[in-house]
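Sequence dictates fold. Below is an illustrative record:

_____
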Amino acid sequence: MMIEKGRISAYEMAVMMYPAITATAILLVPAITAADAGRDGWLSPVWGSLVGFLTVYIAYKLNQYYPQETIIQYSVSILGLLPGKVVGLIYLLFYLHSNGIILREYAEFVDGVFLPRTPLTVVLGSMVLVCALAVRGGLEVMARTALVFVPIVIFLLILLIILLIGDMDPSRLLPVLENGIGPTIFGAKAPQAWFSEFLLVTFMLPFVTDRENGLKWGMFTVLAVMLTLVLTNMFILMVFGEITENLIYPVVDAARYISIADFFENLQSVVMAIWIAGLYVKITVFYYALALGTAQWLNLSNYKPTVFPLGLLMVVFALWSDHNLTELKDFLATIYPFYNTSVQTLLPLIILLLVVTFKRNQTQGGWQR
């Protein structure tokens, strides 16, 4: 049952997925990675991206077997009614919790850096309301807004890097691999958690018009995200060196360094623009997956009635997820990498292996798919 009438291209799917990964990663990952990999932290996203390539491949292969279904639906087709519903519920609770974490990251940043006297509930509620309207508009509306916002985000990020060139010192990256490759692989545990979020394409592929291009554009997006994180980590390390790990928002602190002819100064607002525009797309993608998945799990004919109630739950989860920014960052650096990858890469991989085994046994037994 197709409860989403809109259709998007594989390119539009790729454009939506780019900020869905990078929006929070460029703000928080550099410091987390630097704590493990030091000055070689710019290499860690390369190893982390391997999880992204694998996750996109898994989602695409599962979509080939079940082209009209999302992971919520084909879990039932593959595992049976009760186990499939349990797996579907795991994903719904996971995306509800993830939405809460993303919203809390947004609220902590806005509240702590720009609007310290604004109540957290106001910051959260206003963003959820805007995103809810986009999600109710459907996949096509979300794709169109992403096409508008993503070029702006990329332009502002490039502008920020260009303006910081005068403050960069390449010697802060030397010596390269002083402690071997091990720390860079260990430092990849945070980036790979973000890369595992590419499983979200499973909620879009059934509505992609040129699905044969889905794998190509998915892999291209993983590559684009990897290069973005490598460049971000690199310019942050060239500005701050080994003190990067002690910073909460290295990109914001770097923006404060900018001073050109006493005119371009204190450009935190540029980071704010990158963050808000990118995070809007990220939240809508996660929110859409949660709303669509909930409707499919409940066998509803329309997902739109679930949007506002789920938005309220997201705000509750955001308030409940952590007490403060320190706890949140600790969670993202320690538990989140394993939590994210287990649900979004390992579990789908097990499902795919079951499908492949089942289809092979059918073929050997004389049955054709």
